[in-house]
Amino acid sequence: MYIRTVGVTALLAVQLGCGSKVEVDRAPSSQLNYVADAAWSALPSGRNLGQVAGLALDGSGAVYIFHRAGAAFDNTEIIAEPTIAVVDPESGSIVRELGAGLFVTPHGIAIDAQDHLWVTDTGQDLVFELNAAGEVLHVYDGR
């Protein structure tokens, strides 16, 4: 299951960059078949997510995209714009955005069984635990 999830997540990252929905044919076979739906993604006009640092799915299937909002990996300043886009898995539209003013270099994201977001920032050497609304629950210093 882990390899399939990683494979679907990686393919989803590629398809989001191309503005496509991914459908998985779950019929038993030795091969997984993916079909891209070019009509899926609904980013607002002129909206750019920037470098995508990670993807995660919550318990309801919503897609969380952790991105750098126009900043590069070598960024040294707090990013003022939202850095987490929550995407409806059916329509591809952004339902909310989180993380404005928290991160310097977004790097990774995971979601636990309570739908808490665990995100890493390599620019600050910190791990953040956020609730689904984006409120900071804990900050862990890796130093």
Descriptive account of the structure:
- The chain is mainly β.
- The protein has 2 domains: about 1-40, no CATH class; about 45-140, Thrombin, subunit H (Beta Barrel), CATH 2.40.10.
- The chain is about 10% helix and about 35% strand.
- It has one helix spanning about 1-20; strands spanning about 20-25, 35, 50-55, 65, 85, 95-100, 105-110, 115-120, 125-130, 135-140.
- A 4-stranded antiparallel sheet has the order 3-4-5-6, covered by helices on one side. Strands 7-8-9-10 form a 4-stranded antiparallel sheet, with no helix packed on it. Strands 1-2 form a two-stranded antiparallel sheet.
- Strand 3 (about 50-55) and strand 4 (about 65) form a beta hairpin.
- The termini are far apart.
- Mean pLDDT is about 80; it is low at about 1-10.
Which CATH architecture of the largest domain would you pick? Beta Barrel
How many DSSP helices? 1
CATH names the topology of the largest domain as Thrombin, subunit H
Mean pLDDT: 82
Number of DSSP-assigned strands: 10
- For the record, the count of structural domains works out to 2
Q: Which CATH class of the largest domain is shown? A: Mainly Beta
Radius of gyration: 15 Å
Strand content: 35-45%
SS-based class = mainly beta
Q: Please give the largest β-sheet.
A: 4 strands, antiparallel
Stretches with pLDDT under 50, minimum 5 residues: 1-11
The rounded distance between the terminal residues' Cα atoms is: 34 Å
- Coarse shape: globular
Order of helices and strands: HEEEEEEEEEE
